Amino acid sequence: MILPKLQHAPASRPGDRARTMKSELLHINMGPQHPSTHGVLRLFITTDGEVVHSVTPYIGYLHRCAEKKAEGNTYHQYIVYTDRMDYLSAMNSNWGYCMAVEKLMEINGMGVEIPEYAEYVRVIIAELNRIASHLIAFGTYGLDIGAMTPFFHALREREAILNIFEKVCGARLMYSYYVVGGVKWDIPPDALEEIELFVKLFPDKLREYNELLTTNKIFVERTANVGVIDEDLAVAYGCTGPVLRGAGVKWDLRKDQGYSIYDRFDFEIPVGGGDMGTVGDCWDRYWVRMLEMEQSLAIVEQALQQMPREGEIMAEMPRRLKIPNSEVFFRSECPKGELGFYILSDGGDVPFRCKVRSPAFHNLHVIEEVGAGQMISDLVATVGSLDLVLGEIDR
Amino acid sequence: MAAETRGPRRNPEEAFNAVGDHIGGDREQLLSFGTDEDLASVVQPGSDLVILAQVQSLFRWAQLSSIWPMTFGLACCAIEMMSAAGTRYDLDRFGAGAMRATPRQSDLMIVSGTVTAKMATRVKRLYDQMPDPKWVIAMGSCAIGGGPYFKHGYHVVKGVDMMIPVDVYVPGCPPRPEVLLEGLMRLQDKIRGKKGRLVRPKWIDDYITRIPD
């Protein structure tokens, strides 16, 4: 890693004591208990005064053996552990894993066709969860920067989404709603009404957020031109999701890979354009998330219109799932980026090995490159804009 | 009319008698004086009542009315803890909304999430850094006993009470914010001096009677 040159503040007067004072590097641990590292991330920072000389992330404080657990649980039982990886968007994690297993079955000629109705239910619920995840990102990013109010506004709307999820599957955070071959329960009629109401009311709330935080002068000063991740850097580090799109790269698996029934909806992929500063700065990443909420809402709206009135929610599945020796890698677009599952089966009813490619893990490591040379307060803004979830990084 | 809209208020004399009963009672009752209801009923603007109580119980009343928790999010349960502090559930109603970012200013540690082997020493150190009196709530099944990672969880500590003393266990995976609020109220009871008791739900008794011998 090449460190940028240190910039020392020039002495204010000739003969100032500061000029002759020898500057020393100071080692600081930021975390694992720190309010703005979003969990138990530890950043080892070497500072020169207020300027960060180098920053190294240390992870593993939440390593919960999730990949090992796959080797002792059947294909269906493992779904509950995918919930606990990215706990802000558990529906999307469930879906990614289920699609990987469905793909694995298809390779072995055991393919099941997901009923059309179930596909629509999957899309609606996943997009609602994307909004809920981005709402937390928006709220906590405000907290990191020093704005307390947006957090409460964001949680208010998130509770509305969680209400819908409670009616659909009974849980607030850990859903296990998607199963291999479909979904577990039908959406009850009152939940459908609530989704329609949410779609109607949410655009107003988005406008409110934009007035509250997006165009706030202090917020823009803190985030524009800060933590710039350009296109080359983002691609080189394997960044995905809003971090990659914030750098101006138009890459979204929902369109570029086209899984499920996303080709039936008309939506755009928002990219960062450097509206407030440079392309790929913290503000761009934040703004991409705000725009993505709009697009998710559009997808939900279209899905509600196109959705058949009723239908099957599950395909015909074998009672006990045994998959012959084969392997698959399947990735899907989660709110944080591309979530990939590599599953190796050996003929038994449990996977032989399950490797998870988590988006936040790859997004985190760009901090080594971006963080060096920043002020400490800007480092907080940069870490917040990456929207990390430690459950997914450490697994 | 104005007094009626404010709701029922206790007559100061009546309230004084109520406190007098407390003081005249046995030692256990005397210690339990200092609940917020008692004080709120007695301390009224304009009244010149003298309250007799043990200093200790007054301190307890102050402590249980302003428990400052530490923002100590470990895993998924931290999101539910945030929700509890957020808009709908509003932890601040119980005097526990002032989340402190440092252990040195906090009274309560909510261990919200999985404690791993790597994190365990840090949890212990954070607990040691908190000033007395201090309390711990183990939130979620991971903090209680390993939870879903009990089997094959080679890096998961099977319960935070192996490291630090726990006052209240809040079960669930993750517990709903209401359950965390309930746990907080039980902690307030504990600070108040109430003895804990095992309450068996009625349905278990009903079920037991139906089991044939």
Q: What labels would you give this structure?
A:
heterodimer; A: 395 residues; alpha+beta; Cytochrome-c3 Hydrogenase, chain B; 8 strands; B: 213 residues; mainly alpha; Rossmann fold; 2 domains; 3-stranded parallel beta sheet; 10 helices; globular
Short structural description:
The complex is a heterodimer of chains A (395) and B (213). Chain A is an alpha+beta fold and 395 residues long. In chain A, 46% of the residues lie in helices and 12% in strands.
Architecture overview:
The complex is a heterodimer of chains A (395) and B (213). With 395 residues, chain A is α+β, with helices and mostly antiparallel strands. Chain A has one domain: Orthogonal Bundle (Cytochrome-c3 Hydrogenase, chain B). Chain A is built from 16 helices and eight strands. In chain A, strands 1-2-3 form a three-stranded antiparallel beta sheet. A three-stranded antiparallel beta sheet of chain A has the order 6-7-8. In chain A, strands 4-5 form a two-stranded antiparallel sheet. In chain A, helix 4 crosses helix 5 (116-145). Mean pLDDT of chain A is 87; it is low at 8-12 and 14-19. With 213 residues, chain B is mainly alpha-helical. Chain B folds into two domains: 2-65, no CATH class; 77-192, Rossmann fold. Chain B has helices at residues 2-5, 12-24, 27-32, 36-42, 55-65, 77-85, 117-129, 140-145, 177-192, 202-210; strands at residues 108-112, 135-139, 168-170. In chain B, strand 2 (135-139), helix 8 (140-145) and strand 3 form a beta-alpha-beta unit. Mean pLDDT of chain B is 77; it is low at 1-6 and 23-33. Chain A binds chain B through residues 32-35, 38-40, 60-65, 68-69, 72, 80-81, 84, 87-88, 136, 151-153, 155-156, 158-159, 172-174, 390-391, and chain B through 71-76, 78-80, 82-83, 86-88, 101, 103, 113-114, 116, 118-119, 122, 126, 148-149, 151-156, 173-174, 176.
